[in-house]
Amino acid sequence: MLRRSVLTGVLAGLLAATLAVADQHPQAQRSTPQATPKDPAKDAQRGGPPGAPGGMRFKWWQDPKVIAGLHLAPDQSTRIEEIWQTAATRMTSVVDDLRKREELLSNLISGNDVTEAEVLKQADEVEKLRGMLGKSRTLMLYRMRRVLSAEQRSKLTDLMMAQDRDRRQGRPPDRAPGER
């Protein structure tokens, strides 16, 4: 069970909604594996697909402070939300399938009457799903970035880096990026 929760946490880290800058700054991509939240409403409020903790954990494109800081137009916020909704819907079903397959793999590994070939086949399925999630997330981030101007992307990067600094310094995670 510990393996399953660690694997799920690592996967969730991949899906973290660091949104829009994670592909630009490697530091912004890092997230600590965490237990998967059980409340989909809270997941959606944080801006990640269900079960996707870590990174920028809120819908930054709907946060008044971020909107003001980026001078984000209402149509930009709407377009980013549509991109997020589409990706979250697709990723949620893949995450569910991945969790099931990870559990199967964990059970196979723990079993006594299983062949190496069976474990390898299930491991391949797990890795295939992880790859799909990674590609989906990358495409989502790319699409979101295209909605922003170069100046907005730069400002968002600064906000994300400030949030990362705050997190490392032990400030509460429920603050807006850069808020002290």
Order of helices and strands: HHHHHHH
SS element count, helices: 7
**How far do the termini sit from each other?**
38 Å
Shape: elongated
Whole-number count of domains: 1
In helices, the fraction of residues equals 55-70%
Counting helices, strands and paired strands, the structural category is mainly alpha
* Low-pLDDT residue spans: 1-56
Annotation, overall tally of beta strands: 0
- Could you describe the largest sheet, including whether it forms a barrel? none
C-alpha Rg (nearest Å): 18 Å
The share of residues in extended strands comes to under 5%
| Whole-number mean pLDDT | 74
In short:
With 180 residues, the protein is mainly alpha-helical.
Task: Summarize the structure in words.
The structure is a single chain. The chain is mainly alpha-helical. It has one domain. The protein is built from 7 helices and no strands. The protein has helices at 2-14, 26-29, 40-46, 64-70, 74-110, 116-147, 150-168. The longest helix is centred in the middle third of the chain and has 37 residues, at 74-110. The model is unreliable at 1-56 (pLDDT under 50).
Provide key terms for this protein.
180 residues; mainly alpha; 7 helices; elongated
Secondary structure elements and pairings:
Elements: H1 2-14, H2 26-29, H3 40-46, H4 64-70, H5 74-110, H6 116-147, H7 150-168
Helix pairs in contact: 1-5, 5-6
